[in-house]
Amino acid sequence: MKKETLSLEFTVYDSEKELSSEDAALLSRARQAREDAYAPYSKFKVGAAVLMENGEIVVGNNQENASYPSGLCAERVAVFQAGAIYPGLAIQKIAIAAGSERNPLAKPAAPCGNCRQSIFEYENNQKKPIELLLMGASGEVYKCPSIQGLLPLAFGNEYL
Ligand code: THU
C-alpha cells in the first residue's frame, strides 16, 4: 500500500498588468468575448479566447437557452469552434474571463467539470500542455500550466 498526492501549482498575478503582452492580449480578447455572451437567465457572462499553435485566436462565450441544460459554457463553445476550424492543430493557451453583475469582486472562476474534461481531450491528444489564464470581473489573474492539475486522474481516450 502506498499513498499518492496530486497537487495543483499555479501562479497568481495581482492584476493583468503583470502579464506578458501575449497573455494580456489573449485575456483582453476573452473579456471582449464576454461582452457578447448570451446569458439572460444566469446573468453570469463568461468569455474565452483560445490561442492556437499558428497564432490564430478563436473566441467563445456562454450561450444559454430557455431549456437551461441546452446551453453551453464559453470554454466549450471556444474549444469546439477551434477544433472545427483548425482540426488537429494544437492549442497553446486558453484565457477565460468570467464575471457577474451580482458579484463583481469574485475571484477568477475556473472552468466547470465538463469544460475541464473537454479541454483535457485536446491536451491529451496533442501531448503538449494547454496553459490556462483565469480572471474574474477584475483583479487577480491565475495562470495554470496545464489542465491536468485541474482534472487529476483524468479519463482519456487511452482507456477506451
Ligand atoms: N459557465 C461558463 O460559461 N463557464 C464555466 O466554466 C462555468 C459556467 C456559464 C454557464 C452558464 O451560462 C452560466 O455560466 C452560469 O452557470
- Note the main sheet: 6 strands, mixed
Radius of gyration: 15 Å
Would you tell me which CATH topology applies? Cytidine Deaminase, domain 2
For the secondary structure, the number of strands is 6
State the secondary-structure class. alpha+beta
Following the backbone from N to C, one meets helices and strands in this order, namely EHEEHEHEE
Approximately what portion of the residues adopt beta-strand conformation?
Answer: 15-25%
Family: Belongs to the cytidine and deoxycytidylate deaminase family.
Keywords: Hydrolase, Metal-binding, Zinc
Catalytic activity: cytidine + H2O + H(+) = uridine + NH4(+); 2'-deoxycytidine + H2O + H(+) = 2'-deoxyuridine + NH4(+)
Domain CMP/dCMP-type deaminase: 21-158
What's the arrangement of secondary structure elements?
Blueprint: E1 11-13, H1 21-35, E2 44-52, E3 57-61, H2 74-85, E4 91-100, H3 113-126, E5 131-135, E6 141-144
